[in-house]
Amino acid sequence: MMKQNKLQKSLQALLLLLALGLSACSMGTAVQPWEKGTLARPEMTFGGDKLDTGYTEHIYSSKEAASGGAGVGGGGCGCN
């Protein structure tokens, strides 16, 4: 009986934390038009730093033992 109460309280606490966590995810606001200029700066993009991008591509190609593959889409099946 005592174990069941502890388990039930633990489950309730877990559900409460889960509900709070999920509700925090839904509180985002939309980007306003005057904020879009800040997000459009080159340093806000994934490829903003040329040196870092080159380094990342070098590591990727070294690990994959192939060159290219980061540009044009298409698969090995011949469907471009």
Short description:
The protein is mainly α. The chain has helices at 2-25, 36-39, 50-64.
Annotation, overall tally of beta strands: 0
Q: Can you give the helix content as a percent range?
A: 40-55%
Write down the overall mean pLDDT: 75
| Series of H and E elements | HHH
Layout of SSEs?
Blueprint lengths: L1 H24 L10 H4 L10 H15 L16
Structure description:
It is a single chain. This protein starts with a helix and ends in a 16-residue tail after the last helix. It contains 3 helices and no strands. The chain is mostly helical and 80 residues long. The chain is 54% helix and 0% strand. The chain has helices at 2-25, 36-39, 50-64.
Which features would summarize this protein structure in a list?
mainly alpha; 3 helices; 80 residues
